[in-house]
Design goal:
Blueprint lengths: L9 H24 L4 H21 L2 H11 L2 H8 L1 H16 L9 H17 L3 E5 L6 H4 L3 E6 L2 H8 L9 E5 L2 E7 L15 H12 L3 E5 L6 E5 L2 E6 L1 H32 L1
Parallel strand pairs: 1-3
Antiparallel strand pairs: 1-5, 2-4, 3-4, 5-6, 6-7
Helix pairs in contact: 2-3, 6-8, 6-10
């Protein structure tokens, strides 16, 4: 049965499909920027656009010309303002929607070991930076560190971040339940909305989550507070139980997403 047999013209079907695709893309874009500094910026641009149309309507020529000149560089302006959010969105699209790639997840046991290590370092006020890799590879940052490839254990993590350790200033990267590297250097975030009380570790944690889908745990050397960074969002002042709960929740969602991707891929393969 064709579209014409149902009494629907091809042109109308294409228009409806076009609207559905654009609506879906806008919805996904809003989900990506929700809770980030990109949302108030986007609202600001919308407000400027409304002012432009009002100014043109009532004859405010100079104001309309000024805003029109600004909009001539609109694409460049958007890229400059939202570069981190665009990078994160494209990373998500590439790793989840099209490639159906599933990274290595950490088991519940490993999550408990990490949470216990974070709790102990928090009590001792040891500064630490623990990165849990998910879909997006972090090999470029591992190359700058010291390769370990060791089982995750609170004792190893604690010993890495003691002040006497030569690796304590860098980050530990965990992949699939193993400590792959330590002493890694991460990119810093220059987000102006970040709490000024946060130091280099916290800026590095936010920086790597702006560029990947990694989960990052930080213990503060000054206060001993535990923070968790995921997708540019900060969970602050956590204890061992709440840290483990958030890790488990995000790991479960990650595994479900990977299972769905594999199912879709298997259906496609069967169809071929």
């Amino acid at each position: 049965m064709s579209i014409g047999d149902l009494g629907i013209s091809t042109g109308l079907f294409i228009q409806a499909l076009d609207i559905l695709i654009v609506s879906f893309l806008m919805y996904r874009a809003l989900l990506v920027i929700r809770g980030t500094r990109a949302l108030p910026m986007l609202l600001g641009l919308i407000a400027v656009a409304i002012v432009y149309f009002v100014a043109k309507r009532i004859g405010l020529v100079t104001l309309a010309w000024l805003i029109d000149s600004l909009f001539n560089s609109f694409i460049l302006l958007v890229v400059v303002i939202f570069q981190d959010d665009i990078r994160r969105a494209l990373t998500k699209v590439g790793s989840q929607s099209f490639l159906f790639k599933q990274g290595k997840t950490v088991s519940n046991r490993v999550q408990e070991e990490i949470a216990l290590a974070a709790y102990k370092m928090s009590k001792a006020k040891l500064g630490s930076l623990i990165v849990i890799q998910r879909e997006v590879g972090l090999d470029e940052f591992m190359e700058e560190g010291v390769t370990l490839d060791a089982h995750v254990s609170p004792k190893i993590l604690y010993s890495i971040f003691t002040k006497e350790s030569p690796l304590h200033d860098g980050a530990v990267i965990i992949e699939g339940g193993r400590i792959k590297a330590a002493g890694c250097v991460l990119p810093l975030s220059f987000n102006p909305d970040l709490d000024p009380n946060f130091g280099t570790r916290h800026r590095a944690a936010l920086g790597i989550t702006e560029r990947s889908d990694a989960m990052v745990i930080v213990t503060s050397e000054e206060s001993g507070a535990i923070s968790l960074f995921i997708d540019g969002v900060i969970h602050r002042n956590l204890d061992s139980a709440s840290l483990r709960e958030i890790l488990e929740k995000n790991s479960l969602a990650f595994r479900r997403r990977g299972a769905s991707a594999r199912l879709v891929q298997e259906v496609r393969d069967d169809g071929q």
